[in-house]
Amino acid sequence: MRIPCWLIATLVLLIPAPVFAQTGVLDGQVLDRTTRAPLAGAVVEIIGGAVETSGLSNAEGRFRIPGLEPGVVAVRVTYLGYSPVIVSDLVVQSSRPTFALVEMRPTAIEVEGITVGADAFAVPPSAPVSAVLLSSEEVRRTPGGLQDISRTLLSLPGVIGGVDNRNDLLVRGGGPGENAYILDGIRVPQINHFATQGATGGALGLVNVDFIRETEFYTGGFPARYGDALSSVLVIDSRPGTPDGVRGDVTLGAAEAGLTLDGPVGSGSGNWLFSVRRSYLQFLFEALGLPIRPDYWDAQARLEVFPSQRDRIVVMGLGAIDDFDLVSPDLGDIENQEIFDRVLDNDQKSWTSGATWERQLGSGVARLAVSRSWTDYRFRDLDGQGTEVLRNRSTEATLPVRVEADLRLSPRVDVEVGAEMTRATLDLDLFQASTPGTAFERDVVSRGGVGGWRSGLFAQAVVRVLDERLAITAGSRLDHDGLVEEGLSVSPRVGASLDVSPKWTLSTAVGLFHQNPSLLSVAIQEDGALVNRGLRPIRNVQGVAGVTWRRSEALQLKAEGFVKRYDRYPVLRDDPRISLANLGGDYGFIGGEPLVPEGEGRAYGLELFAQRKLAGGVYLLGAYTWSRSEFTGLDGVYRPSSWDVRHALDLTAGVRPSAKWEIGTKLRVLSGRPFTPFDADRSEAEFARTGRGVPDWDRIGDERTPAYARFDVRLERTLDFGGWNGRVFLDVQNVLNRTNEIGFTYTQDPEFANGRRPIDGTGLLPFFGFSFEF
């Protein structure tokens, strides 16, 4: 008899655990946010724990508070001449010390009788709008999130995901290729397995949540130091390795099993982390009877050393091996045969490695970063007779070098400056046969390589006036893309935030943003000549305004409105009706054909957001977004983009009734997404060749899928065995087993007379997992 996994998980969760009188340790460091100078004598108070205690930072800004009971706590840090700070969601455990990095901003000396409240939501002053901080614990505990940072971000305002089996981030009406990812100061081209070339979406996340210390997510108006992005920037900072000896973590998650190890380097001179994970999705898909077998490995590493009290070096690495197999279905299995026919063979290898040297100056800090990213794509498709209709063997590589400095010119003026150069190359062997479903009438054949330099300069200043209640920031970027004919772009940005009272803040920002064409698009040839060098960096003008109400130290409510205008958006040369804004949300690649930079776009909307850090045993992320996203072809007619979802509601909430138990829930409701009906005649001809349908591009976005609703629940129990501890969880997706039609495929199955087979989202799907630390 087969025992359901949810029953096994329930039994494990209910097993009594032995009780050991073990305590945990909180380590940390208090720094000036801009200069990175250590702050000695800062008062560090534990709040939210079973016992509230405190300590002081030493001459190096470091502190250690032992004797804490295992559980989740927060710290409040105060220091004369600086704004108080709260760091929340710190998990104290007996197996290893917990680390907290506290970054403080100087402020005017407190006036007698006036109390300055601590801030658990502090963001860089160069980002007055559209920035959210998330701790590793907030990422890990998201119900239905599979401990994946990209899926956790779907709980935030302005973020619309793709379909259930993808990690696309569609931010404020922008596409999946408009995002940037920064890991430990190094830009990473993509953070997903089975990534879409020419975009940044994929299947599952690469970044191990066990590494994460904190994330900053910008959905608009981001600082000038971040270029080559139009919609969002995700900045991930890793935690340090354990200073007290080698520690480990064995994890069985929803999609993979993994091992994480970390420890010290020498006697306090550094630390290291390493993890490796292996997928077992292939076994799950086989058990479900599907003809696809996705399989992957990934690894992540980090080394941090301190050559002197003023110097810090961080070396990071992130890599993956993705192997995608197709298995012929049984004779007569029409649905699986259609999947087998239309899905591309998709194998990938990727890695990014880099090093950052940070040196503390008298009035700031300087950094030098060097990295290397490499991705090898292998796509292939055969028709029903075994003839090759598509082949893409390409290798993308980038070598960025960046130097930057954060400086304090006066107590009320901070400046960020920097320069970067990137050598970008692509080796390409591409063949796409002309079929009834392609826009081009001749086969696309591109063989060879393309390479060039992309460079940029940036500067941004923050000035605080009116007793520091008003912060004004202004900056600009100057970028050049040497891979296209007209690659020069200037991106000025300005913003401000005004504290109208201790609890209310008004903020606004406006700016110009640019993003370079993808390497794949630039490398396309026709008769041996590059045909897309006439592309230009996509241009985007953004305006954002908002109001924030800090109800308490743990609760913040925010409302923001945004407007975005695009031009120079790529459009298919051979079918000017089609903008790339209507592509990129599926596996494979986009931009692998002749393009022209003549499209335009617009997006606008309103967002409401509530964030409650864990306090009193309760946490909350609540977001509602109303938005529009429309783009044009060469005809200038605005049509809904593929991600024009008008309404999105996300409610993530949980309780910790005790230090050992946590219950989390997530509700996600979306209005229907655009759907372009099939062209019956062309689809019939294309289906006979490739098993796919052909959209009727005269009717872009004319129809919509039904509304989407999903309710997820996560139950977690913490176990402590003295010196080592664990977590056991049961994560149930779509508890109500609601059928969500997220799209349609073309079919000739007689069961569907209209030629449309619905694509259903995830049904009731329980996952059991555990993590044991030693």
Give a short summary of the structure.
With 774 residues, the chain is mainly beta. It is built from 7 helices and 43 strands. It is globular.
Provide an overview of this structure.
- 6% of the residues lie in helices and 53% in strands.
- The chain has 774 residues and is mostly beta strands.
- The model is unreliable at 111-115 (pLDDT under 50).
- The chain is globular, with a radius of gyration of 26 Å.
- The strands form eight sheets. The protein has a 22-stranded antiparallel barrel. The protein has a five-stranded mixed beta sheet with strand order 8-13-14-11-12. Strands 3-2-5-6 form a four-stranded antiparallel beta sheet.
- Strand 22 and strand 23 form a beta hairpin.
Any descriptors?
774 residues; mainly beta; 22-stranded antiparallel barrel; 5-stranded mixed β-sheet; globular
Share of helix, binned: under 10%
The global form is globular
* Major β-sheet profile: 22 strands, antiparallel, barrel
Which parts are unreliable, with pLDDT below 50 for 5 consecutive residues or more? 111-115
| Number of helical stretches of at least 4 residues | 7
Mean pLDDT across all residues, rounded?
Answer: 92
CA-CA gap between termini: 34 Å
The proportion of residues in beta strands is over 45%
Number of strands: 43
> Whole-number radius of gyration?
26 Å
Structural class: mainly beta
